[in-house]
Amino acid sequence: MPPDDSTSDEASSTCGVSPDGASDDSADSDVCTYHSGDLDFDPDDRDRPLLVWDGDCGFCARSVERVRDQVGERVQYAPYQKIHAHVDDLGPSDFEEAVHLVQPDGTHCRAAEAIFRTLSLAPGHGYWLWLYEHVPGFAPLTEWGYRWVAENRPTASTIATWVIGSDLKPSKRHLARWLFLRLLGVVFVVAFLSFGLQIEGLLGSEGILPAVERLERIQQSVAQRHPNDFVWMWVPTIFTWIEPTERVLTGACLTGGLLGGLLVVGVWPRLVSVLLWGTYLSLVQVGGIFWGYQWDMLLLETSLMAVFLAPSGFFPKGGDDRPSGVALFLCYWLLF
Length: 336
Known about the structure:
Blueprint: E1 12-13, E2 34-35, E3 50-53, H1 58-71, E4 76-79, H2 80-83, H3 92-97, E5 100-102, E6 108-110, H4 111-119, H5 127-134, H6 138-151, H7 153-163, H8 174-196, H9 199-203, H10 211-225, H11 231-234, H12 246-265, H13 269-287, H14 294-309, H15 325-335
Parallel strand pairs: 3-4
Antiparallel strand pairs: 1-2, 3-5, 5-6
């Protein structure tokens, strides 16, 4: 297949192979390292699989960079132009048609299956291979899609650039996560402090719906219907242990506002998200009709999701971590 018009990095090689594929006797044949960016291949490495692609295809090289960003050094990577002599059962035409994953024992697979098997080596990415092997129709559909891309590389490259950008590596979503957590913190600050200003008139001892009396009725109901259960199993709130007086409720609102501020600043976001969720849930349980609206439930769901989305550490600065697949799934589930 003809290469696309995408640009690819110039490669340097000490593989005893010249750029046109001919043998170069002046090179040291015992040491073979091919560099395309920071990708390399060592033929003496018998422990890791080898992912081989068409080195004349810039789109293929960018796609392999995307895979490598997820899988890391669990796999070796090299273009077929430089290593096909090291693969016994495959020729240049095989590699021109599709990417191949060559296992240390010499077995190999190609196209979509090769991609899925490579991704399965990265933690949390084995679901693609599971779908390929167990879901009827998934394998032929993805192989068809791979063939279309392979036969239309310039078009696929253009589409990928429009949709993802010139860098096909998965986004670490640092900016989106940073913005989301801080806006969530602002929402919590407003929610807690605005409720704190009304707490005495709404849930105080002389308020519209005193929290102490409401919680006593709930405890009596649980004791009658489920005498062997703890109250907090049915009403998860810290106020089953601490009497919800005006002072305690006001303190809970101030604490929630402070926690929201810490989330805005970015201090211990995962732990703070847990505490925000627990504090808000506790107030919702005794708030009755005042805290029983859909936006209150949505805020609880969002704060629980933030526990999985937030980075760990006291004052994380981004780094190489990215949100887990579970966190992203919860985000999509909540939004759609």
